Amino acid sequence: MMRNRRTLIWLVAVNVLLLGALALSVLTEPTPAFGQAAAGRRGDFVMVAGTVSSGSEQAIYLLDLRSARLATVVAKSAEQELQIVDIRELQQDAQLRLRR
Q1: Residue 91: how many CB atoms within 10 A of its CB?
Q2: Do residue 94 and residue 49 come from a single domain?
Q3: Is position 38 within any domain?
Q4: Of 1, 23, 52, 61, which one is least surrounded by beta carbons within 10 A?
Q5: 49 shares a domain with 95
Q6: How many CB atoms lie within 10 A of CB 78?
Q7: Which structural domain, as residue segments, surrounds residue 4?
Q8: Is 61 a domain residue?
Q9: What is the pLDDT of residue 100?
Q10: Nearest residue to 23 via CA among 15, 31, 35, 32
Q11: Taking the chain, what is the end-to-end CA distance rounded to the nearest angstrom?
Q12: 3-state per-residue secondary structure call for the chain
């Protein structure tokens, strides 16, 4: 009987501790993790998968909506790394096209 009571007290204490940790995590302001932008940057990027114009490699196209930049990233499987192929300034490209 004493063992059941001790186990019950221990379980209640653990639950109170977990509830306190949950309340603390909900009530405190989260800080951005390393590598994340500060607040207000959520939803500013569009990512699309496709092929490079040569047709032999797969690419990821990243569009930054705030700066109007488009980056082409290719996965190099032999080196196990991502390589930035090109970064385009879309506003400048549009102005050059209009001048023609």
Answers
A1: 11
A2: yes
A3: no
A4: 1
A5: yes
A6: 5
A7: 1-30
A8: yes
A9: 62
A10: 15
A11: 90
A12: CHHHHHHHHHHHHHHHHHHHHHHHHHHCCCCCCCCCCCCCCCCCEEEEEEECCCCCCEEEEEEECCCCEEEEEEEECCCCEEEEEEEEEHHHHHHHHHHC
Question: Model confidence at 16, in pLDDT bands (50, 70, 90)?
Answer: very high
pTM score above 0.70 = no
Residue 54 lies in a domain: yes
Q: Residue 12 has what pLDDT?
A: 94
Distance CA(48)–CA(58), nearest Å, equals: 11
Number of domains, the chain: 2
Phi-psi region of 58 (alpha: psi -120 to 50; beta: other; left: phi over 0): beta
Is residue 1 scored above 60 in pLDDT? yes
